[in-house]
C-alpha cells in the first residue's frame, strides 16, 4: 500500500468525521479541554506547593557535625572534603568556634552568657562544626549515621545536630502533595480518556455502515482504525492547546518578575504545555483505540 | 408475478462453444465439510451441511426464511465461524485464518446484499472507488477501473448520481460494480433481488450470470423461485438448517414439494 495516498485518505476521512459529527466533536473538545485544564492546574498548584516545601526542606536539610576541640585543622578539612564529595551533599562549610559563638550570640541570644564564661576563664565552650546542606531531606539521617562514628567528632551526647521533628513532617507533606497531585492528574486523565472513548464510539456508531463496507471489501483493521486515531489525536492536541492557552494566560495575568502566577518559571510552564500536548495526543489515540475496538470485533 | 425474460448466458465457457459437457478437473474452490453453526442463543442455524463448489460454478442456495441461506454466506466471508466442521475457500480453512489475514480473503470475494450497503453521501463513482480507496489507495488508473466496472453493470452514464437518485435495481448494480472492482474469483450474493421488483431482480440475476460467464464462481442465496427456475443452474436447497437437496440444473422446489 502506498503510504502517501493512504495517509491523505485517512487524514481526509478523520477531518471529514470531525466536520460531519461536529456536535459530538465540539462537546468532546470542550470536555477534554476542561479536564486537561484541571490536570494542568493541578500540576501547577502541586509544583508551586512542592517548590515551597522544597524551600523549607532545603532549610531543614542542614546537618551540623560538631568537631572535637583537639582535632587538627587538616583533619577537619579532610573530613569536610570527604563529606562534600558525597552525592547527597549539596555543600559542606566549616564554622570555627568564634563563628559558632557569634552565631549563638546573635541567633540564640546567648551573648551575655558567653561573655561571662570568657571573663571567668571558661573560654568558648562552643565547638567548631562542619555544616552540611543536603540535597534531599531523606538523606539527612543516613549521612548523620555515617558521620556519627568518626573519632573526630565532639565527644558530648550530641555530636551532630539536625531538625529531627521538622524532617519527617516535611517528608509527609511533600509525599502527600505529590500523591495528591498524581491522583488528581490520574483521575482527570481517566475522565478525559472515557470522554474520548465515548466520543469515538459514537462516531464509530454513526459510521457503522461505512465501517461494515470497509471490512466487507477487504480493508485492514488498521486502515479502519487510522481515521479514528487521527480524530482522537486532533481532539486531544487541540484540547491541550486550548487548555495551555488558558493556563498560560491566567499565569501571565497574575505573574510577576518574569515568572507566572504561583512563582512558576517559564521553563516549567513550557514543560507543562508540552506535557499537556503529548498527554492530549496519547489520551486521544488511546481513547480512540479503545473506542473503535468493538466495531472491529468481527 | 411475471418476468420479461431474455435468455440466460451459457453455463460455462466450455458449454458456450457447444462442444459437449464441460470437463471439470479443477479442485473445488469452496468446500463445506459437515458444517454446523449454532448461534450464542443456542439456535442451530446450519446443521451438518456438506457440499463443494467448483471454480466457475453458479450455485443458488434456496430455502425459506430461517433455512440457513444467509448463514452459509456469512460463513463464507468469515463473518461467522463454524461451530463444527470445516469451511474451506481456495484451499484455506477459514477457521484457521488469522483475523489479520481476513482482509486478503475478502478482497478475493465480491459480496452483495439485499440492502445494497451503499454510502448515501457518495456518488455512484465514489461508492465504487471506495472499495479501492480503503484497500489500495495508491492504485493507478482508478477512474478507468471504476468506469470499467460501471460499464459492466450498465451504469456508465450514472457516475455522478447519488444512490437516492437511482432505482433499487440500479443501486444493486452499483453494489455489484463495487464488488467487481477487485476482479473477485468468488462472487457471493445474499438475497440480491429481495428488495427489487421482478424485472429488476431478473436483470440482477442476468448480470450475475454474466459475471459467472466471465469466469467468477457465483453463490447466490435467494428465495426468489422464478429466477431460480428460469436460470437452470445448480440448486442447494436448505430447510431448517439442513441441506436437503443438491441438484444440477435444479428447480426451486422438487416435484411435489410445497412452499413453506
Report on the structure:
The complex is a heterodimer of chains A (298) and B (260). Chain A is built from 10 helices and 4 strands, in the order H-H-E-H-E-H-H-E-H-E-H-H-H-H. Chain A is of the alpha+beta class and 298 residues long. Chain A folds into 2 domains: 3-55 and 170-296, no CATH class; 62-135, Alpha-Beta Plaits (2-Layer Sandwich), CATH 3.30.70. In chain A, strands 2-3-1-4 form a 4-stranded antiparallel β-sheet. In chain A, helix 9 (221-254) runs antiparallel to helix 10 (266-293). Chain B is of the alpha/beta class. In chain B, the strands form 2 sheets. In chain B, strands 6-7-8-3-9-10 form a 6-stranded mixed β-sheet, with helices on both faces. A 4-stranded antiparallel β-sheet of chain B has the order 2-1-4-5, with helices on one face. Chain B starts with 12 loop residues before the first helix and ends in a 13-residue tail after the last strand. The chains are: A alpha+beta (298), B alpha/beta (260). The interface between A and B is medium-sized, with 22 and 23 residues.
Give the integer mean of the pLDDT values of chain B: 87
Please give the share of residues in helix of chain B.
25-40%
Summed up, the domain count of chain A is: 2
Give the overall shape of chain B, derived from the CA principal axes.
globular
Largest interface: A-B, 22 and 23 residues
At a glance:
The complex is a heterodimer of chains A (298) and B (260). Chain A is built from 10 helices and 4 strands; from the N terminus they run ααβαβααβαβαααα.
Write the layout of secondary structure elements.
The complex is a heterodimer of chains A (298) and B (260).
Chain A: H1 3-20, H2 22-60, E1 62-66, H3 73-84, E2 89-95, H4 97-107, H5 111-119, E3 129-134, H6 140-148, E4 160-161, H7 166-206, H8 208-216, H9 221-254, H10 266-293
Antiparallel strand pairs in A: 1-3, 1-4, 2-3
Chain B: H1 13-16, E1 30-38, E2 44-53, E3 58-62, H2 69-76, E4 84-89, E5 92-93, H3 102-107, E6 109-113, H4 124-133, H5 142-152, H6 168-180, E7 186-190, H7 198-213, E8 217-222, H8 225-231, E9 234-239, E10 242-247
Amino acid at each position: 500500500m502506498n503510504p502517501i495516498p493512504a495517509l491523505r485518505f485517512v487524514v481526509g476521512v478523520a477531518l471529514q468525521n470531525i466536520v460531519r459529527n461536529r456536535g459530538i466533536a465540539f462537546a468532546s473538545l470542550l470536555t477534554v479541554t476542561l479536564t486537561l485544564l484541571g490536570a494542568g492546574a493541578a500540576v501547577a498548584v502541586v509544583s508551586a506547593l512542592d517548590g515551597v516545601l522544597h524551600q523549607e526542606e532545603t532549610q531543614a536539610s542542614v546537618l551540623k557535625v560538631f568537631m572535637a576541640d583537639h582535632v587538627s585543622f587538616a583533619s577537619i578539612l579532610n573530613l569536610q572534603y570527604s563529606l562534600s564529595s558525597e552525592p547527597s551533599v549539596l555543600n559542606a562549610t566549616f564554622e570555627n568556634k568564634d563563628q559558632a559563638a557569634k552565631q549563638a550570640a546573635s541567633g540564640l541570644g546567648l551573648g551575655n552568657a558567653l561573655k561571662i564564661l570568657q571573663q571567668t576563664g571558661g573560654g568558648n565552650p562552643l565547638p567548631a562544626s562542619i555544616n552540611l546542606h543536603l540535597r534531599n531531606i531523606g538523606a539527612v539521617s543516613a549521612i548523620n549515621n555515617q558521620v556519627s562514628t568518626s573519632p573526630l567528632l565532639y565527644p558530648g551526647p550530641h555530636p551532630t545536630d539536625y531538625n529531627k521533628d521538622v524532617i519527617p513532617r516535611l517528608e509527609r507533606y511533600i509525599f502527600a502533595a505529590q500523591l495528591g497531585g498524581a491522583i488528581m492528574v490520574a483521575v482527570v486523565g481517566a475522565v478525559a480518556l472515557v470522554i474520548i472513548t465515548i466520543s469515538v464510539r459514537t462516531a464509530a456508531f454513526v459510521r457503522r455502515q461505512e465501517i461494515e463496507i470497509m471490512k466487507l471489501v477487504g480493508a485492514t483493521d488498521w486502515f479502519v482504525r487510522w481515521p479514528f486515531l487521527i480524530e482522537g489525536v486532533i481532539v486531544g492536541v487541540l484540547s491541550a492547546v486550548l487548555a495551555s492557552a488558558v493556563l498560560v494566560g491566567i499565569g501571565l495575568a497574575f505573574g510577576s518578575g518574569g515568572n507566572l502566577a504561583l512563582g512558576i518559571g517559564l521553563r516549567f510552564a513550557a514543560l507543562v504545555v508540552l506535557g499537556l500536548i503529548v498527554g492530549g495526543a496519547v489520551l486521544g489515540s488511546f481513547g480512540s483505540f479503545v473506542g473503535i475496538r468493538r466495531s472491529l470485533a468481527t | 408475478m411475471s418476468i420479461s425474460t431474455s435468455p440466460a448466458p451459457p453455463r460455462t465457457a466450455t458449454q458456450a462453444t457447444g462442444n459437449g459437457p464441460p470437463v471439470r478437473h479443477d479442485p473445488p474452490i469452496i468446500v463445506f465439510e459437515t458444517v454446523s453453526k449454532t448461534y450464542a442463543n443456542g439456535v442451530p442455524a446450519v446443521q451438518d451441511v456438506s457440499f463443494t463448489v467448483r471454480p466457475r460454478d453458479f450455485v443458488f442456495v434456496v430455502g425459506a426464511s430461517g433455512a440457513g441461506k444467509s448463514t452459509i454466506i456469512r460463513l463464507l466471508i468469515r463473518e461467522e465461524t463454524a461451530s463444527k466442521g470445516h469451511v474451506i475457500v481456495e484451499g484455506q480453512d477459514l477457521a484457521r485464518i488469522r483475523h489479520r489475514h481476513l482482509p486478503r480473503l475478502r478482497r478475493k470475494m465480491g459480496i452483495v446484499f439485499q440492502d445494497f450497503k451503499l454510502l448515501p453521501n457518495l456518488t455512484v463513482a465514489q461508492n465504487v472507488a471506495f472499495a479501492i480507496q480503503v484497500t489500495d489507495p495508491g492504485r493507478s488508473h482508478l477512474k478507468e477501473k471504476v468506469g470499467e466496472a460501471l460499464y459492466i453493470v450498465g451504469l456508465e452514464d450514472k457516475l455522478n448520481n447519488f444512490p437516492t437518485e437511482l432505482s433499487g435495481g440500479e443501486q444493486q448494480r452499483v453494489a455489484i460494480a463495487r464488488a467487481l472492482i477487485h476482479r473477485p474469483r468468488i462472487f457471493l450474493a445474499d438475497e440480491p433481488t429481495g428488495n427489487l421488483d421482478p424485472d429488476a431482480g431478473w436483470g440482477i440475476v442476468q448480470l450475475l450470470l454474466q459475471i459467472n460467464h466471465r469466469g467468477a464462481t457465483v453463490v447466490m442465496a435467494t428465495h426468489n423461485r422464478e429466477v431460480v427456475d428460469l436460470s437452470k443452474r445448480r440448486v442447494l436447497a436448505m430447510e431448517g438448517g439442513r441441506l436437503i437437496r443438491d441438484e444440477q440444473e435444479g428447480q426451486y422446489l422438487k416435484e411435489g414439494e410445497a412452499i413453506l
